[in-house]
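Technical appendix A lists one of the benchmark inputs used to test multi-chain prediction within the project. The record comprises two sequence entries:
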Amino acid sequence: MLRTHTCGDLRLTDKGTTVTLCGWVDSYRDHGGGLFVDLRDRYGITQVVFNPPDTPQDIIDASKDLRAEYVIQVTGKVEPRPEGMANRKHASGEIELRVTELKLLNKSKAPPVSPSESITEIPNEDLRLKHRFLDLRRPVMQRAMILRDKITKGMRDYFADLNFIDVETPILGRSTPEGARDYLVPSRVHHGKFYALPQSPQLYKQILMIAGYDRYVQVARCFRDEDLRADRQPEFTQLDLEMAFIDDDDIMTLIDGLVVKLAKDLLDIDVPTPLPRMTYDEAMRRFGHDAPDLRYGLEIVDLTDLAPQSDFGVFKSVTDAGGHVRAICVPGGANHYSRRGIDALTEFVKGLGAKGLAYFRVNEEGVLDSNIAKFFSEELRAEMGTRLDAKPGDLVLFSADKWLGTCKVLHGLRKKIGEEMKLYDPKAMNFSWVVQFPMFERTEDADNPQAIGKWSAMHHPFTAPLDDSVDHLDDDPAKCRAKAYDLIINGYEAGGGTIRIHDPEVQSKVFGLLGIDKETAQDRFGFLLEALAYGAPPHGGIALGLDRMVMLFGGFDNIRDVIAFPKTQKATDLMTEAPGLVDAKQLKELAIKTDL
Amino acid sequence: MLRTHTCGDLRLTDKGTTVTLCGWVDSYRDHGGGLFVDLRDRYGITQVVFNPPDTPQDIIDASKDLRAEYVIQVTGKVEPRPEGMANRKHASGEIELRVTELKLLNKSKAPPVSPSESITEIPNEDLRLKHRFLDLRRPVMQRAMILRDKITKGMRDYFADLNFIDVETPILGRSTPEGARDYLVPSRVHHGKFYALPQSPQLYKQILMIAGYDRYVQVARCFRDEDLRADRQPEFTQLDLEMAFIDDDDIMTLIDGLVVKLAKDLLDIDVPTPLPRMTYDEAMRRFGHDAPDLRYGLEIVDLTDLAPQSDFGVFKSVTDAGGHVRAICVPGGANHYSRRGIDALTEFVKGLGAKGLAYFRVNEEGVLDSNIAKFFSEELRAEMGTRLDAKPGDLVLFSADKWLGTCKVLHGLRKKIGEEMKLYDPKAMNFSWVVQFPMFERTEDADNPQAIGKWSAMHHPFTAPLDDSVDHLDDDPAKCRAKAYDLIINGYEAGGGTIRIHDPEVQSKVFGLLGIDKETAQDRFGFLLEALAYGAPPHGGIALGLDRMVMLFGGFDNIRDVIAFPKTQKATDLMTEAPGLVDAKQLKELAIKTDL
């Protein structure tokens, strides 16, 4: 080893010992007679001092050439810092190293992105990604990568203790039924054939259950050839698992235990279990969304039955057409949102498809008032106020539309107002389940116009219905609810799973509803259907998004901050400069060889 | 849960308790009045009994429909097996379950590959791969997957305890400098551009060192678009790591510790450390190969200096041309290899490029004798015998050729004879290092004829020379030895690594020797070179082949047996039937969309 200790190791108890450190020059202060250097590595910062009489003059002279990010090896004696000079920010802040030997291990050009602790300004993301090797030196990025490592290790240990087997499933394989666009990989050996990169190990993990592995887990890389977004990468990682001889409740209980462990180990938070479970229908009714943020209230109240009593044309026409009038009551919102604030909210809901934003302020007498008050009798407003539990100073915001339209608008308002009014502690973590999703939804838009209005699977065609929903496969598919469950953290879907169908008869009915005929089923899922015919146990599983888990546990806003080498929006600009994308020029030649 | 216990849980101490098990019907014996079923899951086998009076008659009747691989749930009472009927092979073999309730969870068609313990005949591999879901049920395959999980977990834990960070590097990325053919992935978003699948995370892990991560580890999926072999898959897994501020000795010491731990934990073998280290030159001299099998002797003896004293034309012409005459002495070989045996060895060495096989048998008087004895004086044969430590009954086998030719032939003979004469305990594990590989080799064959005879890097162009070899970069590149080290297990290269160049001047010299001009270097390795200019620490690492490690630790002959879903030679046959390859018909359409 080129060092005896790291830059985070030394303490007062090491006083007087001679040690060797290696690291990067985080910052330096020349004070004429000598030099102070903050030496940095992954483990911490240690002050190293080039001063007479400890440091020979030739080394002091040499030290004057040191610059930011130079890599050095220094040997010297550990001494307490002078009285009052200790730096409590660093674990090694009470000592300093009085240098007797210096070796320059490498120079650095002046860094365009400074990783130094002393620089607090963060450069723009393009520059950071272009010089990712410098960006990754920043302590906040190192914390992100270490957190990611800890979450991954915590997950793996948790499942290993429970007898799960980590099995690697292929990256080069068949297409899987997730529905997004696959990346395709031409094979040179099998001319004209392609592999697909997996969107998830779904089919493989089901086969592992059929193969008797009983409990499978994997931290799996998955791929979707889709556009980038702030929270989406074409290559992502999921904690993927599957169990046999269990039901939906067992999977949720298992994940409850994982959440308790991670929250305790990483954030020192005690999470009570079982985590709350809410049906999809309840989530849509109370929060307008299937991944509600439960860190604050602003629950939706349905006023559809009262709307016809008003003279407000908008409400009446919506309810006449079978639509809904729903509202949220924002405590203190009347003061927080001025006239201009309401205008901004109006613009916002228009972006979500609303025609406008009806509202009431609750005045000091507790009366609902606004420019539309005249359309509502005093009694009607009082009744609405009671239903909404409206208090003086509150703001009532309406959405009148079809059911899903009101969900979209009121969910959007909840989220926006939650953030703007800081209705939650940003460090709080809220975990819950949304369960019993619909089995089927009507396809609304698709490449293929013939598909519109037909049933499609809300999850995938192997999802099992609830036991008491099986009959609805025949009489009313819209009523079918699935053994499906999503883990929600702070309003984000952190993961989700389902129990799979293991009964060939049920599977055949589901395929029928989805318009998948026997030949198509055989073509697309043949090898899984084949396996299902040879003794498939009841089984189910879940996948958690690792990138998102790290983001939420670490309090990061951007998924790229928790991935060492992310793909970027400006990938084409970076293609020849940053890791992550192939140099097209170099590979064109190979592509020709491969007969692409 | 659908069960209270697994099929491996129950013991005599559970006597009298009522339990529920789930599993597969491994075998069944109808004895008229009732049925015995061996119920199997991943954890073991439990005998379940459908007999009066414990089992109601309707359940006995239903049980008669059970067939191999049916999945059932049974409830009943745990009782000791009748006197003398215990099955010591199974941990639950002393008890049986007297069934009171039966639920058929799923049927199975008659399995073309039987996973039953009672069937000892293994079907051919094509059939096994086609029905992998059944093949994977076989206990030996489950042991392979569990061993793989344990080795992986053991590695991860070992490095986590030593402060290594597990960092995920991209699968979709740039081309890396390993030299095999890359798989290419067309990007839909960046039209006309390609990603490459990594042959190793080499460049990324070097960037992580430059980024200050200090100790990186990852169980990494790697890809090479090459033909399949028995020991090679196009998609493989390596334990990949890199450290900063270390030298070659530190990496080897680290891996010594891993080997000790794995051998102890998995095989209960105590491996003494440090593992023996042998230079590349010594390995070639003594064993003719850079991955020698040290479980047995048969060391090569060089007799080039004695050859001219003989009248044997073959030897004389070879030594006249500057070639070598080398031999191995096989203890007891004279008896083991009859005339016909020698003929077979002769055919064998011809396949390795030899023109024939010169040999001596050592007779009872200790005299070297054969059809070529007449060309050698008695004294010369005695001198040879002494050098070879030849004893009565031994067999001496020669190779006369250029240096590398003799290496190839004598290594081949060593390996073949070692196996044929069973010179080692098949359960023995031998670990060692081969170190100090040449930096450069002359390119012998290449697509590009201009490359022939030019220097190429034996590892990759970032490999650092030994400190005392740096000067040879200028005066004699052939003499340059690298800070490179391979871990050898039982004659297989289980992994290898190098210390990387961190000095720009040395890197520039190496590029020069390899004929890589500045522009090419910038083109191919630009983003790494850029990173190296911003304070690169001394660093190096290693990669161990996980598939091969599992194969060697588990005593498997075939790498496909340690991979859940391997690619196969007959992949085209299996393409629409087994997991692992894309259905070409289905994907052609997508390929058109992607403008391939």
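The domain at 296-423 of chain B is CATH 3.30.1360.30 (Gyrase A; domain 2). The first strand of chain B starts at residue 18 and ends at 30. Comparable benchmark entries are summarised in Table A2.
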